[in-house]
Amino acid sequence: MVDRLVNSEANARRIAMVESCFGSSGQQLAEQGRVLVGEGVLTKMCRKKPKARQFFLFNDILVYGNIVINKKKYNKQHVIPLEEVKLESLKDEGQYRNGWLIRTASKSFAVYAATATEKEEWMAHIEKCIEDLLRKSGKQPPSEHAAVWVPDNEAAICMHCKKTQFTVLNRRHHCRKCGSVVCGPCSSKRFLLPGQSDKPLRVCLQCYDMLNRERARPPQTAQTPGQGAAKVLDTTGSGGESSQDDDSDDEDERAADQSHDEPKFYGDGEKTEDTNNHSSKDQASK
Predict the structure, then answer these.
(1) pLDDT at position 122 over 90
(2) Strand ranges inside 132-285, DSSP E
(3) What is the pTM (predicted TM-score) of this model?
(4) For the chain: N or C, fewer Cβ within 10 A?
């Protein structure tokens, strides 16, 4: 499927359309060999609440953004290399159904499809793209992934001290190592996690102690898979970077059309416009 569509004029037009929908705020997506495999709306679990996001699956990257005008305008573009992605299916729980985790070294989050069938389609297509990429590159899938953040509304009090109640003054923070919602005193340390940032990030005291113990072990035993590059940095009190706890695509700039359309995948069964054009020319020449 992908090889046949690589040089398709229809594929080039689809990618150009995606670029135009993001406008000048998005990056260039058209590259040699890149194919738009599918697109559709998924519900992304953001820090504050679940929100609809437009997703575009290419053969090498996953792109998503906020919906400003459905099928016409998107913003806050995020581009995720598929070689870094690991999927993990989620069990249905209450109102949250047909979900799975998208995990990478820098960010991990949950998404939900409208139906079980759509979930199967999305996961199958993403997994196939990842498998093809890793096979061609000979690379191994990443073994270390960022924690999935616990949503704010699931923690009325600090998940570690179990005492601090969150208010306007007592803000919620997220540990970048375990994803727990914690108070300021329980997350007063920062630690350099190279997979997530080149700056020290807020971690809870438990994770800080654990990471320090791992650093203190002899080199042959200090590393758990994917963690060898982590470095400690105590910036308590002053000099540390901002925790940057806000989810960068958490807020919508305006209300978007939330009507649901089924996802569209461009497969072998589809007659591309190129094929149709060639067929028309063949008929005309006879």
Answers:
(1) yes
(2) 173-174, 181-182, 189-192, 201-203, 231-233, 264-265
(3) 0.76
(4) C
